[in-house]
Design brief:
Blueprint (H helix, E strand, L loop, with lengths): L3 H7 L5 H15 L37 E4 L7 H9 L4 H4 L7 H10 L4 E5 L9 E7 L5 E2 L2 E6 L4 E10 L7 E10 L4 E9 L5 E10 L4 E8 L4 E10 L5 E10 L4 E10 L5 E10 L4 E10 L7 E10 L5 E10 L5 E10 L2 H9 L4 H17 L5 H16 L1
Parallel strand pairs: 2-5, 3-6, 4-7, 5-7, 6-8, 7-9, 8-10, 9-11, 10-12, 11-13, 12-14, 13-15, 14-16, 15-17, 16-18
Antiparallel strand pairs: 1-2
Helix pairs in contact: 1-2, 2-5, 6-7, 7-8
Length: about 400
């Protein structure tokens, strides 16, 4: 299945250096043991049979003239540039921890990816409209392994929206993704990721970033789907004044299980980070939230914060939160807060006394929690679709 013969087939027609990197990743993959995700009771997970991904996923717009965009599976004429960017993640300074949700899954994504993009915003380019990427799974394309590299060069500004979705509610599908991000000096990069797979599918997603001097990276991950969803978001604030934020929404109902990991690794002085996560659990859903703030030696006068608020719509849900703070510096500020609770009965009664049904009142309370983050989705059609999805599932 996932063997050397498959890697050899995948390198046919691909750039020489990227083909070599595939083979190196396969060697690593072969020697790694897959981890279990014990807190959501996901043991001995077996990857499904490989299949290619043939759908078109990049929505073409005028911005393609301003950006450099290449499909990672093609025979590229700039592969040396791509390899040089990827080598930055091997720097000993940032090697520790840059393993995504699990080293085996990371190596699998680099060895067997069937799609993915290299996107670069050149120096001083400021894009006014978002880049739109739609990875959709269907009967002909049930396996998605995307390997993405996004670079914002000096003084550039860019927003990228990636929508992972499917229409078939009975399809058994699989996603294992890897997105690496580099934000250079004074650049601003916003990345919105929306995941809306059905409850027969499995989702694994690793996101790793390096942020340079005065650079800014803002993540908006919206986790709404999959039977099992394991995600990791790991950011290294390498230089002075670097900034990163994560504004996350998750909604789990039925028997869904979510393992959400967020990490901010401060290395530069005066660096700042913020993790904000808002969630809702319903029925028998399970969720584990891990939020880590690291202040390494040399990251003096840096600030980091993490907050999670989760609304428990039923007593049968399982919610676990593990915030952590580690510091090798004295002169830093780190704070974390977790709030988990049932619906406010007095508020619910008040809304129902104004003529709302119980379901409508719950829906309004969830919307009030989620809307500040939903408002960061720059595409109105996508935002409306996401809101309607949440409304429907609250009422069901």
């Amino acid at each position: 299945m996932y063997n050397k013969k498959l890697v050899d087939n995948l390198t046919t027609g691909q750039s020489k250096l990227l083909s070599s990197r595939r083979r190196e990743s396969y060697d690593l993959y072969e020697n790694l043991t897959k981890s279990d995700f014990k807190r959501i009771k996901l043991f001995d997970y077996q990857f499904p049979e490989y299949s290619p991904y043939n759908k078109e996923y990049l929505k073409e717009k005028k911005w393609q003239q301003e950006l450099l965009i290449k499909k990672m599976t093609d025979n590229l004429n700039n592969e040396e540039e791509i390899i040089n960017y990827l080598e930055q993640f091997k720097d000993k300074k940032v090697e520790k921890g840059n393993q995504g949700l699990d080293p085996k899954y990371l190596a699998m994504a680099e060895a067997f990816y069937n799609t993915g993009l290299f996107i670069k915003a050149p120096k001083n380019v400021e894009l006014k409209v978002p880049v739109e990427i739609f990875y959709e799974l269907d009967q002909e394309n049930p396996v998605l392994i995307d390997n993405n590299l996004i670079v914002a060069e000096e003084n550039s500004k860019l927003t990228i929206v990636i929508d992972y979705r499917m229409q078939d509610q009975n399809l058994t599908a699989f996603h294992n993704g890897l997105t690496r991000v580099i934000v250079k000096e004074n650049a601003v990069l916003n990345i919105v990721k929306v995941q809306r797979f059905n409850d027969q599918s499995d989702n694994f997603d690793s996101n790793i970033s390096l942020v340079s001097n005065q650079g800014e990276l803002n993540w908006i991950p919206i986790e709404l789907g999959a039977k099992n969803s394991v995600t990791n978001n790991e950011n290294t604030l390498m230089d002075d004044g670097s900034r990163a934020s994560i504004s996350s929404v998750y909604f789990a109902d039925g028997e869904r299980k979510m393992d959400l990991g967020f990490k901010m690794n401060h290395q530069g002085r005066h660096s700042s980070s913020e993790i904000e996560s808002k969630g809702v659990l319903k029925d028998r859903a399970q969720k584990i939230f891990r939020g880590d703030l690291y202040f390494q030696k040399g990251a003096g006068q840096s600030k980091g914060s993490e907050r999670e608020e989760v609304l428990l719509l039923d007593k049968t849900v399982d919610s676990d939160s593990i915030p952590a703070l580690f510091s090798e510096e004295d002169n830093v500020e780190g704070e974390h807060a977790v709030s988990a609770g049932q619906i406010d009965e007095q508020r619910l009664f008040y809304l129902m006394s104004r003529g709302m049904t119980k379901a409508e009142a719950k829906q309004l309370m969830v919307e009030a929690s989620f809307n500040p983050i939903f408002d960061k989705i720059p595409l109105n059609d996508l935002k409306g679709s996401v809101i309607n999805d949440v409304k429907t599932r609250i009422r069901s």
